[in-house]
Amino acid sequence: MTQDSLSFRAATLADTDALVDLVESAYRGDSSRAGWTTEADFLDGRRTGADDIKACLDRPQSVILIVERNGADAAPELLACAHVAVEDGAGYFGMFSVKPTLQGGGIGKRVIDEAERIAREDWKLPSMRMTVIDIRNELIAFYERRGYVRTGHYKPFPYGDERFGLPKRDDLRFEVLEKTF
Does the global pTM surpass 0.85? Predict the structure, then answer.
């Protein structure tokens, strides 16, 4: 696949089912084990749902960025997505998902670049933030290589709220990472 065959666009409600399928495949169950972003070893249950997609799309200053491969003879194929929004005076980056069999091929870097461009150029924000489960050392290292720093600020994992998954361990929490533009 050439990088030139990729296109970016904002998601619509019509993309909901495909987005839920993509996000679930990247983080939950056996299909997620084909990539390196799986959370299957410490979380079961859902990662996102149609309600989350609708909330992101309805929110002001919020977009779900979709990355598709455009084929000459086929409909566009959903490869990756990320939620980008304005939150507390900075960009927020979340719901980042790349099709597991394509992880490690550079698509994710392109998604991050485009999400940062939206926050920096379109919304004129000074930085981008995200939350990452703090036991995800390999994932945190990935973001650090892209200029994000660990802030030392933590948020509790929402135990008991099945919308965020079913934890297999009791020591989960989120750490805030930030990149200043």
Answer: yes
Q: Kindly report the CA angle at 52 between 90 and 55, in degrees rounded to 5?
A: 65
Judge whether 44 and 28 are in contact, CB under 8 Å: yes
User: At CA 178, angle to CA 64 and CA 138, rounded to 5?
Assistant: 85
Among 91, 104, 118, 125, which residue's Cα sits nearest to residue 10?
118
How far apart (Å, rounded) are the C-alpha atoms in residues 43 and 22?
A: 17
Angle in degrees, CA 93, 149, 23, rounded to 5: 30
What is the phi/psi pair of residue 19, to 5°?
-65, -45
The span from the CA of 91 to the CA of 82, in Å, is: 12
The span from the CA of 32 to the CA of 142, in Å, is 18
What backbone phi and psi angles, to 5 degrees, belong to 107?
-65, -45
Q: Where does the pLDDT of residue 1 fall: very low under 50, low under 70, confident under 90, or very high at 90 and above?
A: very low
Residue of 163, 141, 173, 166 whose CA lies nearest to 95: 163
Q: Are strands 90-98 and 77-87 parallel, antiparallel or unpaired?
A: antiparallel
Tabulate helix, strand, coil % of the chain (nearest 5). Answer: 35, 35, 35
> Nearest Cα to 100, choosing from 172, 23, 167, 168?
23
Q: Give 155-166 pLDDT, tens digit per residue.
A: 999 999 988 899
